[in-house]
From TrEMBL:
Pfam families: Spermine_synth. This is Fused MFS/spermidine synthase. CDD domains: AdoMet_MTases (cd02440). The keyword Metal-binding does not apply. PANTHER family: THERMOSPERMINE SYNTHASE ACAULIS5 (PTHR43317:SF1). Signal peptide: none annotated. Keywords: Polyamine biosynthesis. NCBIfam families: MFS_SpdSyn (NF037959).
C-alpha cells in the first residue's frame, strides 16, 4: 500500500483509522496494511475484495427485497446491492459513528430512502429484535483485531435467525481458520437446514445458511453466474471454485 497517500485520519474510543487514496482507489484502513474497504472511485459498485464478491454470491440463490448489513465499513456491500437492484431496502448497522461519517464523506455512500443507517452495536440491534424480518442478513463485523467473536456465537446466530424470513439467508464473513471450527458449523446446523460455505482466495470463509429450499444450484447455473457477473462487472464464478456444503 506504499503508493497510497493518507487522505484522512480519524479516531474514536475504539481506535484509530484512516482513509487512503492512490488516485484510482480509495481504502478504509483500521490498521497497518489493512484494507477494511476498498472502492474504485469511477465504479464504486464493483466489489474489490474476494470476500465481498463471495458474500454477494447469495444473490444467486435469492432475490432479496430487504436486507440487513451488520458492519458498514466503507459501504462496499451497499454500493453493490444498490447497483444490482435499486429497489432493495437496506438497513446498515454500524457501531462507530465516525465510520458512518467517513463512508458518507469519502466513499460516495449512495444515500436514499431505501437506505437506513443505524449507529448501534450489532448485538444490541439484534437483541432488540424490532426490525421487520428480511430476506438476507450480511454479518461482516470486523475491527483491527479481526472478526468479532460474538458474530460466531449461538446467541448471535439465533437472534439473526429471528430477523430472517422463513426462507431467508444469513451470510457470515469469517476467516479461513473458521472452516475447521466444528462448533460453529454445528451451531449453524442447529438453527438452519442448509449451510454452505466458500473459501476465498483472500483467506476468508464465507458462510451461507438458510431454512429455505436451499436453492444453491445457482452456483452452477452459467446463465445466473453470467447475469450477476455482468451486474457487478466482476467474474463471480472465480470466487465460487471452492464452494459447497459445510460438512
Amino acid at each position: 500500500m506504499s503508493d497510497y497517500k493518507v487522505l484522512h485520519v480519524d479516531s474514536d474510543s475504539f481506535g484509530d483509522f484512516c482513509v487512503l487514496d492512490d488516485g484510482d482507489y480509495r481504502v478504509l484502513s483500521f490498521g497497518d496494511n489493512d484494507e477494511q474497504s476498498k472502492m474504485d472511485k469511477v465504479s464504486p459498485h464493483v466489489p474489490q475484495h474476494t470476500y465481498v464478491q463471495a458474500m454477494l454470491s447469495v444473490l444467486l440463490f435469492t432475490q432479496p427485497k430487504s436486507v440487513i448489513i451488520l458492519g458498514l465499513g466503507g459501504g462496499a456491500l451497499v454500493h453493490s446491492l444498490r447497483h444490482v437492484d435499486a429497489a432493495i431496502k437496506i438497513t446498515a448497522v454500524e457501531l462507530r459513528h465516525r465510520v458512518i461519517e467517513v463512508a458518507k464523506r469519502f466513499f460516495q455512500l449512495p444515500l436514499s430512502k431505501k437506505l437506513t443507517l443505524i449507529n448501534q452495536d450489532a448485538n444490541v440491534f439484534l437483541a432488540g429484535g424490532e426490525h421487520k424480518k428480511v430476506d438476507v442478513i450480511f454479518a461482516d463485523i470486523y475491527s483491527n483485531k479481526g472478526v468479532d467473536k460474538q458474530q460466531l456465537t449461538d446467541l448471535f446466530i439465533n437472534q439473526s435467525k429471528r430477523l430472517l424470513k422463513a426462507d431467508g439467508f444469513l451470510v457470515l464473513n469469517c476467516w479461513k481458520e473458521h472452516s475447521r471450527d466444528s462448533h460453529l458449523r454445528d451451531t449453524l446446523y442447529r438453527h438452519f437446514t442448509y449451510v454452505y460455505a466458500c473459501l476465498t482466495g483472500g483467506g476468508n470463509w464465507v458462510v451461507y445458511a438458510t431454512n429455505g429450499s436451499g436453492n444453491f444450484a445457482g452456483a452452477n447455473n452459467k446463465q445466473a453466474l453470467q447475469h450477476l457477473s455482468q451486474k457487478l462487472d466482476t467474474n463471480i464464478s472465480r470466487v465460487l471454485t471452492r464452494f459447497g456444503p459445510w460438512q
